[in-house]
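Chapter review. Work through the record for Proteinase inhibitor I78 before attempting the end-of-chapter questions.
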Amino acid sequence: MAPIPTPSAEPQDSPDGYVGLDAAHAERLARQRGWSTVRSLPPGAIITMEYRAGRLNFEVRDGRVARAWKG
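Structure tokens for Proteinase inhibitor I78:
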């Protein structure tokens, strides 16, 4: 049986720190801080709810991050 892969460590910054930032700037900053995937979503978007280590989600309203969460 193959070993279960160990997920890489997530950056230690808080998703709340991205709220209010311009969406493009927030995405660049998140990638610089080590997030492997950054997903920008419109308000009310239908998304899958599986947790992915290293992914940061942004809900973007009027070009700004309104909400941010891991996974």
